[in-house]
Amino acid sequence: MTYINVGDMAKEGELYEGFDEEYDCPILDEDRVIDELEERMSEGGVIVDYHGCDFFPERWFHIVFVLRTENSFLYDRLESRGYKGKKLQDNIQCEIFQTLYEEAMLSYREEIVHQLPSNTPEDLEKNLDQIMQWIEQWMKDNN
């Protein structure tokens, strides 16, 4: 099993196509990310961690987990990371309107998309347990 944080991979490989001054962050070059991941994904056994999903090919995934955070937790979390102004507001609105969940539902088969709460450290532990149980069951069913 291999874990890939797409943000870290993009930073290490400089997989950007510019810089967004308004959001004060690099703009991901999605095509280069796909090219970088293609071979590893074809081998299987890869967990991909990213805050978006609509550009990843459907064939890559057997299950998609969308982490959801209540706004009171999310605001403090993002503010502690230095988010402010439009970037902070847009991220809060994205959660309110379930933008990433809807993106996942439109990009992948409905039956493989699952929401998990991500408010507290306890949620993190429960999510890890649930994901590991799913992986173990999938491996039993498919090997």
Overall geometry comes to globular
Main β sheet profile = 2 strands, parallel
The quaternary structure here is single chain
pLDDT < 50 runs, ≥5 residues: none
Structural class by SSE content: alpha/beta
The value of Rg in angstroms is 16 Å
Question: What is the helix tally?
Answer: 6
N- to C-terminal distance: 14 Å
Helix content: 40-55%
**Count of DSSP E strands?**
6
N-to-C SSE series?
Answer: EHEEHEEHHHEH
- Name the strands of the widest sheet in spatial order: 1-4
Note the topology.
Elements: E1 2-5, H1 6-13, E2 16-20, E3 25-28, H2 30-43, E4 46-49, E5 64-68, H3 71-80, H4 85-96, H5 99-107, E6 113-117, H6 121-142
Parallel strand pairs: 1-4, 5-6
Antiparallel strand pairs: 2-3
Helix pairs in contact: 3-4
What do you see in this structure?
By secondary structure, the protein is α/β, with parallel strands linked by helices. The chain is built from six helices and six strands, in the order βαββαββαααβα. The chain has helices at about 5-15, 30-45, 70-80, 85-95, 100-105, 120-140; strands at about 1-5, 15-20, 25-30, 45-50, 65-70, 115. Strands 1-4 form a two-stranded parallel ribbon. A two-stranded antiparallel sheet has the order 2-3. β2 (about 15-20) and β3 (about 25-30) form a beta hairpin. The longest helix is centred in the C-terminal third of the chain and has 22 residues, at about 120-140. The two termini are about 15 Å apart. The model has no long low-confidence stretch (mean pLDDT about 95).
